Structure formats: C-alpha cells, structure tokens
Amino acid sequence: MRVNLLGAAIDSLTMQETVQRVAQLVKCGKSCQIITLNPEYLYRAQLQPELMEPVNRADLVTPDGAGIVWASRMAGTPVPERVTGIDLMLHLMPMAEKEGWGIFLLGAAPGVAEAAAENLRKQYPSLNIVGTCHGYFKEVEEEDIVSQIKAAQPHLLFVALGMPKQEQWIYKYKDRLGVPVSMGVGGSLDVIAGRMQRVSPWLRKLQLEWLGRLIKEPRRWRRQLVLPKFAWLVIKKYVLKL
Ligand code: UDP
User: What terms describe the molecular function in GO for this protein (predicted)?
Assistant: First the structure.
C-alpha cells in the first residue's frame, strides 16, 4: 500500500517487507530507483516541483526520518516504521552476499567508498563489490562515471552525493546505467567507512536523530530549519485542515 503525504506517494512497508520488495526489483530487470524520503526533501519538493518528479516516478519510496513517520500518523495513514537509507543498505547486505549481487558504491570524499567497501567485505567476505568511485567529480566527468558503472554491471548502486543531488543524479542516468536498483544513501558511506559516527541508538529511539546530527555536524543547522516549517505544513494540512 502507498500513502500520500504532501503529494508524495510513500510505500507503507516494514523494513523486512522493503528488503523483499528490493529483491523483487533486482529480479524484474528494469532500472529501478529507490528514494528514502526525509522531511527536508519533502519540504523542498513543495517549493521545487522538479524534486517531486523523481519521487513520483520512483519504484519504491521509503519513510526516512521520524518526521515522515509522525506526519503519516497526522495524516491518518500511519506507516509501520522508519526505513532509512543506511538501515536499508545494511539490511540488503546479507541478501546481496547470498545472491551474489554486484554492488557499486559511488560518492563521498576520495578514499571513503573504498574504505566502506573494505569494511563491508570484512563483515560479508563473499560480498561482490564490483566498483567504487568518489563523489567529487566535475560535470564533464559524469560520462566516464556512467561508463565505469555500466561496465561493472552491478545489481545495486548506492549513491552518496547528499540529497537532493543523489536522487536527481540517479533519476537523470538510471535508464542509461541499466542497474536494476539504485538508491541515494547520503552520509552512509562515511559511517560505514568509520569516518563519521552514527547518532546513538537511544537518541534515535527518542526520535531525536536530528539533534544528534546537529551536535555532530553543526553546519546542518541551516538545513534543519526546514523541520519546524515541515511540521507546520503537516499540521495545517492534516490537523487544522486549512
Ligand atoms: N558528497 C559527495 N559529493 C558532493 C557532495 C557531497 O560525494 O558533491 C558526499 C559527502 O562527502 C557525504 C554525502 O555526500 O559523504 C552527504 O552526506 P549527508 O549526510 O550530508 O547526506 P544527506 O543527509 O544530505 O543525504
């Protein structure tokens, strides 16, 4: 089932159901895009409709961020749980190892994708990582990157360029890439490479991940200013029905 939130259709699935759905997408042979939708993206998409296009064309949209889960409750169509990019990526690893799916990691600073690949291989020794590439390329280099990914023939492409750049990048190139499943994963490669620590589980449980990230990365304050604006939009539409 899909629930509509401020114009975006979000798949109402648990993490386990999402993993099963991804497995189906890998097998279906199309070039699918997964978007893990957070409140910052959804708010920006209200002001920049071109950001809504990849969401509405995506094959799977997961509720990333406590704000999306809260908003779905306010709208009267609660989703079962948060399905974040990093959690989904890590949940896919055992299946990728078992099925022999090829994995390509694109993004983050030079050396980070390789370090992330190394750490993933330590945990999943038979994982088939078919390529890595950093995310600080110039526009003229994109053709080369597309060729590199195509030649590596991954089943899963994880793109860490930050949102909304990663979602737009995948949307622009997915048909040419021919990768069965591509998804944006934000800062996940930094976390997996051990360059950045994830917000502690107790803060996440208290739905205060935004606070933890603000403490770790104070530069995020400007971005997080949209969170109260997002909450107000949700209250206006679904509670006050204005
Ligand atoms: N990044 C990149 N190329 C860019 C801009 C960003 O590879 O041109 C990487 C950056 O190094 C980091 C990730 O994209 O690893 C963005 O992480 P962030 O936590 O900001 O992701 P978001 O929350 O925006 O999805």
Answer: N-acetylglucosaminyldiphosphoundecaprenol N-acetyl-beta-D-mannosaminyltransferase activity
Query: Which atom of ligand 1 approaches the CA of 213 most closely?
Result: 19
Q: Which atom of ligand 1 is nearest to the CA of 135?
A: 7
Residue whose token pair is 């989703």: 79
Beta strands 60-63 and 32-37: pairing type? parallel
**Is the overall model pTM greater than 0.85, yes or no?**
yes
CB of residue 164 inside a 6 A radius of ligand 1: no
* HEC sequence for 212-237: HHHHHCHHHHHHHCHHHHHHHHHHHH
Q: Measured from the CB, is residue 189 less than 6 Å from ligand 1?
A: yes
* Contact in structure between 104 and 156 (CB atoms under 8 Å): yes
- pLDDT, tens digit (0-9, with 9 covering 90-100), for 101-117: 999 999 999 999 999 99
Structure token pair of residue 144: 């080369």
* pLDDT over 90 percentage in the chain: 86
- C-alpha 69/C-alpha 14 separation (Å) is 12
Q: What would the pLDDT profile of 40-70 be if each residue is shown by its tens digit?
A: 999 999 999 999 999 999 999 999 999 999 9
